[in-house]
Design a protein that fits this description.
This protein is of the alpha+beta class and 184 residues long. The chain contains 3 helices and 12 strands. The chain is globular, with a radius of gyration of 16 Å. Bound molecules: S-adenosylmethionine. S-adenosylmethionine binds next to β2 and β7. This is SET domain-containing protein 9. It comes from Nibea albiflora.
Length: 184
């Protein structure tokens, strides 16, 4: 990761009291504007049922258009992701990466759901960028995407969310986003 991207990120206990785990730049340097992490999880359209999966689940990310991404790596959320990922497999090709559900993700960027919220003394250093994966994205690279659609729908592009550095970020710094950004 250090060789390819120029930095490493990892999960560690947050510097915020009582905030659990956070995400840190552990090595190297992240330049402003770089993609620093991805938000993994099952993608639900606004009309799809998520009630059970959302109970006591702080990992549900809401996109601007109401699409939801469940980035919880435990319990029913984990089972749903694995099930959808197995369903979507095309012959030898996996259409998504399930290793973010483990302690050591194959795609080391897929830990963005653990980024904590900013506060007065910890301003945001990353922001969320939502995008739809284009049709021409190579099928053999989809195995590294940590997102899967809840419903099988080959017409719809895959929604992904990445975290982008708002400024240069150095090794040792924790990542903070703003959970409540309002986009006008
Ligand atoms: C999406 S999770 C982030 C990962 C979480 N820290 C964990 O260990 O699972 C969101 C939860 O993290 C905690 N959290 C995030 N930002 C926080 C902050 N600024 N202060 C205290 N707790 C925070 C809250 O418990 C919140 O419900």
């Amino acid at each position: 990761m250090l060789q390819t991207l120029g930095f490493c990120i990892d999960r560690k206990p947050s510097t915020l009291p009582f905030a659990g785990t956070g995400v840190f730049v552990t090595r190297g340097f992240v330049p402003k504007g770089a993609t620093v992490a991805m938000y993994p999880g099952t993608v639900y359209q606004a009309y799809e049922p998520i009630l059970l999966q959302s109970i006591r689940n702080p990992f549900v990310f809401r996109c601007i258009d109401g699409v939801l991404i469940d980035g919880n790596d435990k319990g029913i959320s984990k089972m749903v992701f694995r099930s959808c990922s197995g369903r979507d497999r095309m012959g030898p090709f996996m259409m998504s990466d399930t290793s973010w559900l483990t302690e050591s993700p194959q795609n080391p960027l897929a830990v963005g759901q653990y980024v904590n919220n900013c506060s007065n003394d910890r301003p945001a250093n990353v922001c969320y960028q939502e995008y739809d994966v284009p049709d021409k994205f190579p099928i053999e690279l989809r195995q590294y995407l940590p997102n899967v659609n809840y419903s099988l729908d080959t017409q719809r592009p895959m929604r992904c969310v990445v975290l982008v550095a708002l400024r240069d970020i150095r090794a040792g710094e924790e990542l903070f986003s703003n959970y409540y950004t309002i986009v006008h």
